[in-house]
Amino acid sequence: MLLQRSLLASLLIGAALFSTASVAAQDEAAPSGCAAKRQALAEQIEAAKQHGNSAQQAGLEKALSEVTAHCDDASLHKSREEKVLDAQHEVAQREADLRKAMAKGDQAKIDTRKTKLAEAHKELQEAQEQLEH
Q1: What's the Cα-to-Cα distance from 54 to each of 6, 40, 47, 61, rounded to whole Å?
Q2: Closest alpha carbon to 59 in 4, 22, 18, 19
Q3: Whole-model pTM over 0.85
Q4: Which one in 36, 39, 88, 97 has a CA-CA gap of 20 to 30 Å to 50?
Q5: What is the pLDDT, as a whole number, of residue 129?
């Protein structure tokens, strides 16, 4: 039971990440929002069928039914706006942490804080790209 939940959670996360990457890679004429999520999941389902992966197919079909039942473009847009705000807050926090480390002069902490700030900037950029699509 726990293994099935872990597998389903992994599939849903993978589907969401794949959907996000697919949307970012497509041009303006391509579907966006919930339609893009549904399309990406349908493509993944087809790939799972072709590879005979029935467990993955079942998980993706469940994810598709959830998206179909619960996704609407307005709530998806709001959720993406919230992710951008959260990411902006994280960047601000990481910048403050870096300033503190620089004030202390501890090079190891400065390097760590720079790495964390770069990661936060990357997450912010990804969140902004998702919001645009």
Answers
A1: 16, 18, 11, 10
A2: 4
A3: no
A4: 36
A5: 92
